[in-house]
# Entry
Amino acid sequence: MKKCIVIVFSALLVACSFLFAIPSQAANYQVKVAINGTLVQFPDAQPYISSVGRTMVPVRFISEKLGYNVAWDGVKRMVTIDNGQKKIELTVGAHQVLVEGKAVYLDAPVTISQSRTYVPVRFITEGFDQTITWKNWNRTVYIGTVPPNPVLNMVASAYGTECGKYDYMGNPVKLGTIAVDPSVIPLGTKLYIEGYDFSGLPAGGFYGVASDIGGAIKGNRIDIYIPSGDLKAFGFQNVKVHIVE
# Structure
């Protein structure tokens, strides 16, 4: 698959660069958990997203960070979480857990992985009346305090239709298609871009989606698809990229 990027040297040149290397699993799919703005450090077993799309976390680490008591019954293969006001009992392999003795259904069962007991993080937090927010742009679960979305200072270049009609995600390229480094901005993230000076783009700023990649787009770089105009005149420009959730 080819994608085009306009590169400016001492004389303006236009060159296409080949896309290569599917973004690594580690860079694109690592899941983090923050409690009141502080990232939770997992010494061994790490959070992951299950086959049904649930964020699974080692129950002891999260519960103890929240100030809950955790007990393990090896005979019953049951974890008990208690915050002094409410008690939750979770049995390994079960889709049902007990909250104050009442059965509650889970669409992702309690499991053991890497010698740790995993449960859906949403169940722990909402079971004890904690707020929970998922931010796709940095693949982080926020429990409690949620920080504002960042504004990134980046360098932008431009590419056009001569390099293909579809982006990396298989969508037709159009105004708003943005090529990114997925280790910096995950694919699928919604963006608002401003700070450029180019007549071929909307005045002031525009919304886009990180749906493309390019061999030269690494680190603090983006590549903006522009349907028409003198792309060589765009060159390299400093822009502000707002993460939009």
